[in-house]
């Protein structure tokens, strides 16, 4: 499926990013709308250059500078999260809501990023915070590893 097809699918329903923009009172220009929909349709964690390549397929008039300004604005307004997966590139994903909380496991050899959720880990983080006299209000977790080869 091409990015145009995924964005057309997203066109039918307002994207999560557009919804967050509206809730935060951000005016949605057409370039912002396209960027929001392309990022919402992403099945990975694109950096600015990858996002630009995808956006150009939908609207070739949007510049790289517009991508950078929009992502900075989205980040400042807590609409997207910027992540560092150890490859020197800032990656983006829509801000997690209570129903889509997850962490990242990054393969340092291939750069593959897997999202995961583990209830035991969630409970442990809360217990550690409580034991140290804190109430946990936020956290980010990226684990880095090398995928073991499957043994037959």
Assembly form of the protein: single chain
Q: Beta-strand percentage?
A: 15-25%
> Which CATH architecture of the largest domain?
Orthogonal Bundle
Q: Gap between N and C termini, in Å?
A: 33 Å
SSE string, helices as H and strands as E:
HHHHHEEEEHE
Query: By CATH's scheme, which homologous superfamily of the largest domain applies?
Result: Winged helix-like DNA-binding domain superfamily/Winged helix DNA-binding domain
* Number of structural units classed as domains: 2
Helix percent band: 40-55%
Number of helices: 6
Overall 3D shape: globular
The largest β sheet comes out as: 3 strands, mixed
Task: Tag the structure with descriptive keywords.
two-stranded antiparallel sheet; single chain; alpha+beta; 152 residues; Arc Repressor Mutant, subunit A; 6 helices; Dna Ligase, domain 1
Question: Overview of this structure, please?
Answer:
The mean pLDDT is 84. This protein is globular. It folds into two domains: 3-94, Arc Repressor Mutant, subunit A (Orthogonal Bundle); 103-145, Ferric-uptake regulator, C-terminal dimerisarion domain (Dna Ligase, domain 1, 2-Layer Sandwich), CATH 3.30.1490. The protein is built from six helices and five strands; from the N terminus they run H-H-H-H-H-E-E-E-E-H-E. The protein has helices at 3-11, 16-23, 30-41, 48-58, 64-76, 119-131, and strands at residues 80-84, 90-94, 103-107, 113-116, 142-145. A hairpin with a 5-residue loop joins strand 1 (80-84) and strand 2. The strands form two sheets. It has a three-stranded mixed β-sheet, with no helix packed on it. Strands 1-2 form a two-stranded antiparallel ribbon. It is of the alpha+beta class. The two termini are 33 Å apart.
